[in-house]
Amino acid sequence: MHLLSSYDRWLSERIEQRLGCHVITLNAEMTMQAEQTPALARTIHQAELVIPDGSGIVLYGRLHGKRIQRVPGIELAQTLLERSTQFKEPWSIFFFGGAPGVAETAAQNWRQKIPGISIVGVQNGYLKPEDEMEFLHRLKTLQPRLIYVGLGVPRQELWIAQHRHLCPNSVWVGVGGSFDVWAGTKNRAPQWLCDNHLEWSYRLYQEPWRWKRMMALPKFVLRSVMYRLTKRNPVSG
Ligand code: UDP
């Protein structure tokens, strides 16, 4: 069975039973950032579900004799949206993040694709400080079952950790740039690149300014190999 369906089932049950949860989609970049940002490391440790979304993590597993299956976060997020109308009552969903208009377009596209989907609210990720209280109040009133937060890493993880108490029974997922893909403002890498662990090269081609951030990937690989050779924990040094 593909791992995606296990996560999907586990999360569906949690949503149905109204058991709150923070889902983190882990990649090499985030792991390296966690080393510099203790709050991010804490948040990753505290999350109820961390899924391996990155070829670096898969490689790390292989080096240590573990077969880890990669599950792209965007695919898990899509599967849950498709699942959302298949229960007695459609799950209420909130989209938070992206440039003005992006989450709205993404929501409209999903409404066309899945009749009956219940996206109860959207909010762009460039909120003015004076509007923040009102937004938090709206979220608290709505208590959506599923909340997608696309503010980029590590902002979205830290934001969820800080605000999840407002909707303690919701499933919160950091979705990165997924709203951009669903709105059609960004493309995902072609499948053959994803299948060959080369999705990162497409991101670099689309967003060359990311090169500095993406240096985390070779660093992570080097650290993983060193760890394999010396058995020293790459995080604690
Ligand atoms: N973003 C946002 N508010 C911010 C900064 C970023 O809503 O203050 C959004 C941005 O518009 C984009 C997403 O966060 O939609 C970041 O996407 P990216 O692909 O960079 O995510 P990452 O690779 O960091 O997960």
Features:
Rossmann fold; 13% strand; alpha/beta
Strand order of the largest sheet: 2-1-6-5-3-4
Mean pLDDT: 92
Helix count?
13
DSSP helix fraction: 40-55%
Rounded to the nearest angstrom, the distance between the terminal CA atoms is 36 Å
Q: What is the CATH class?
A: Alpha Beta
Shape by Cα distribution: globular
CATH 2nd-level architecture: 3-Layer(aba) Sandwich
Instruction: Give the total of beta strands.
Output: 6
Q: Please state the structural category.
A: alpha/beta
Q: How much strand content do the residues show?
A: 5-15%
* CATH topology term: Rossmann fold
Over all CA atoms, what is the radius of gyration? 18 Å
Query: Which ligands, by name, code or SMILES, are bound?
Result: uridine-5'-diphosphate
Could you describe the largest sheet, including whether it forms a barrel?
Answer: 6 strands, parallel
Poorly predicted regions are none
- Structurally, the number of domains stands at 1
Description:
- By secondary structure, the chain is of the alpha/beta class.
- The chain has a single domain (3-188), classed as Rossmann fold (3-Layer(aba) Sandwich), CATH 3.40.50.
- It has 13 helices and six strands.
- The protein has helices at 3-16, 28-36, 38-46, 55-63, 73-83, 102-113, 132-142, 155-163, 178-183, 191-195, 199-206, 211-214, 216-230; strands spanning 21-26, 49-52, 92-97, 118-123, 146-150, 171-174.
- Strands 2-1-6-5-3-4 form a six-stranded parallel beta sheet, sandwiched between helices.
- Strand 5 (146-150), helix 8 and strand 6 (171-174) form a beta-alpha-beta unit.
- The radius of gyration is 18 Å and the shape is globular.
- The mean pLDDT is 92.
- Uridine-5'-diphosphate (UDP) binds at residues 97-99, 125-126, 150-153, 176-177, 179-180.
